[in-house]
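[agent] plan:
  1. take the single chain provided in the ticket
  2. run structure prediction with default settings
  3. attach structure tokens to the ticket
  4. add a short note for the reviewer (M.T.)
[agent] executing step 1
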Amino acid sequence: METKLTQKNKPITTSREVISNGVANATLKSHNQSPRKVRLVTDLVKGKKVPAALTALEFLPRRAALPVAKLIKSAAASAKAQGENVDELVVQSITAETAGMLKKYMPRAFGRASLIRRRKSCVKVTLAPVVAKAKKGTPAKVKKGK
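[agent] step 2 finished; step 3 output follows
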């Protein structure tokens, strides 16, 4: 477990692990933002190379961009420690899932109370080396008889 500080000096806890054949994983266990908003950021970097993903996140004006960038850097550092070339790694998969929620109540009119749900998200990233795809011939055009 690694603890880092964000811009507002709130700790971010990540776990790093490396699986065989050059795949590096990192997990952000509890980020105080809804998964729906974090998915907007994660979908942007899915499938990109690590330097391109970090550059895109650097200029993205979203709150989740900084923690996702730190998470990708954490996974890249994990892969680098295993001897992988970081510039050749691709964000193979990145998911933003729910990590529970904080429920509290807000007083309303006539003695009622309404529920406020502070959603949290768990972000998991997997980096893998680029796999060269074999080029396939273009398929023959099929003529339709009229």
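[agent] step 4 note for reviewer: The first helix runs from residue 35 to 45.
[agent] ticket updated
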